[in-house]
Design brief:
Layout lengths: L1 H54 L6 E2 L11 E10 L5 E4 L4 E4 L4 E9 L5 E10 L7 E5 L6 E3 L4 E10 L14 E10 L2 H10 L9
């Protein structure tokens, strides 16, 4: 009987070893999938932003280095919209509407004031409506997606340099649009981001108002 039991255990040892290896492989593969999903989650936002900037999807303006200059008398009116998230105590004000000729370089400035009693770090996103003109609205200079610190009571101007691509006049879906709206929304980066920023820029919280 003892010999039979030892024989049974010996014969089952390779099976147990194989099962352990299989379980180890399953755990490693599962962990790899989880890590990969987390990495994709973090990469999704910048990749989506890049895709929108290239295609003009969802009214995302294009990035340019210079305006071609006005090519005709055709013009559009550009309006501006300024918004803040509910947890951001800033007063954010848009510039007045401007009328620009197609291809003409134009500069405007938004203003923001921190009405809170502590420094706040914000960042802005943007879009253009109607969405059909997003790929024709080109920004040369912009304050979007960069960290902006305002200390209590501080007021800053944020400039935007842009032009509208003359080829919009040849697009059957966009050529009849005579008014474009450029919208910005500022968001609070939060306490952790603020503390990290102040550690990297120790004099920033003492900037003159």
């Amino acid at each position: 009987m003892m010999d039979s039991e030892m024989t049974r255990r010996a014969s089952s040892a390779p099976i147990r070893s194989m099962l352990r290896r299989r379980n180890t492989i399953v755990v490693v593969v599962s962990a790899g999938v989880i890590v990969g999903m987390v990495a994709l989650t973090y990469a999704a936002v910048p990749l989506y932003r890049l895709f929108c900037q290239v295609t003009g999807l969802a009214g995302t303006p294009q990035i340019a280095t210079a305006a071609p200059g006005a090519t005709s008398a055709a013009s559009v009116t550009v309006r501006f919209d300024a918004n803040v998230a509910s947890n951001l105590p800033w007063r954010f004000t848009p510039p007045d509407p401007v009328k620009v000729r197609l291809g003409e370089e134009q500069q405007v400035a938004f203003t923001a004031t921190n009405v809170a009693t502590e420094p706040i770090l914000g960042t802005a996103t943007f879009n253009v409506t109607p969405f059909e003109v997003g790929k024709y609205f080109n920004k040369i200079q912009c304050f979007c997606f960069t960290k902006q610190l305002l200390i209590p009571g501080e007021r800053k101007e944020f400039s935007v340099l842009f032009f509208v691509d003359p080829s919009v006049a040849q697009d059957p879906d966009a050529k009849t649009i005579d008014t474009i709206t450029l919208s910005y929304t500022f968001y609070n980066k939060g306490r952790a981001a603020l503390e990290d920023y102040l550690r990297a820029h120790p004099l920033a919280a003492h900037a003159p108002q």
